[in-house]
Design brief:
The protein is α/β, with parallel strands linked by helices. The protein has a single domain, classed as Rossmann fold. A seven-stranded parallel beta sheet has the order 3-2-1-4-5-6-8, with helices on both faces. Helix 1 packs across helix 5. The longest helix is centred in the middle third of the chain and has 29 residues. The chain is globular and about 55 Å long. The chain starts with a strand and ends with a strand. Bound molecules: NADP nicotinamide-adenine-dinucleotide phosphate. The site of NADP nicotinamide-adenine-dinucleotide phosphate (NAP) has 26 residues, from helix 1.
Length: 229
Amino acid sequence: MELKTAIVTGASSGIGLAISKMLSEEGYKVYGIGRVFPERCDFFEKRISLDLRDTDILLAKISEIRRVDLLVNAAGSAYYGLAEFNTPEQIQEMCRVDIEAPLILTSSLIPKLKDTKGMVINIASVTSTRINTHGAVYGALKAGLRSYGRSLYEEVRKTGVRVVTVCPDLTAGTKLYRNADFKPSDDEGCFLLPEDTAECVRAVISMREGAAVTEVEVRPQFNRIEKKK
Ligand SMILES: NC(=O)c1ccc[n+]([C@@H]2O[C@H](COP(=O)([O-])OP(=O)(O)OC[C@H]3O[C@@H](n4cnc5c(N)ncnc54)[C@H](OP(=O)(O)O)[C@@H]3O)[C@@H](O)[C@H]2O)c1
């Protein structure tokens, strides 16, 4: 039997990397997209190094993959602070990575996903349903991604394709907060690990055909951030 194939963006770090590893354990051939991959990650079928903002290169690389059972849009970019002080460059980068790229990738892969009755998993965020002072742009884009997932599922469900929005909360051990002046608290129970979201995705892809999880939030038990020193 032909192996199932997954394309994962954000595969070079954090949550996308943990999901890629889990998928390879589950027997998927994983095509990972990122810019700079860690040295030790031999579980990928192929590492595709590119900037998601280079749309032509992205589409050309993707067109080489014949079969697609699963698309995981996990790449993300975040700049925090009051909206008044977000620069045009920061806003453009977030728009292009957090929403433009997943939408372009998803629409271009829907025909192949229909062939396999496949699945799209968008990694949004708990910010997608909240008011996000100091993270208004990021939260707005994640809300857009969540909304897109809801509509897309209604469009494609009759073809057997499933669309899932996974919304993690504060996750430690990733690079997402590199531009922030805060981070998840180090106290036990105040942060998720990338593997927690990967386990959630494992559960979602294990549902029997005909049953669909469409949205899920993953939260640490406690809610605490701390200022970086
Ligand atoms: N960490 C959290 O608390 C948290 C909470 C909720 C949701 N999320 C979401 O989870 C997803 C993964 O984030 P993470 O926490 O794992 O952060 P991360 O460690 O910073 O990972 C982000 C990934 O996106 C890739 N990426 C960013 N810009 C890119 C670009 N222009 N072209 C290609 N790849 C690009 C990065 O690739 P390179 O490193 O190779 O550039 C990296 O693989 C994101 O969508 C994020 O919004 C995270």
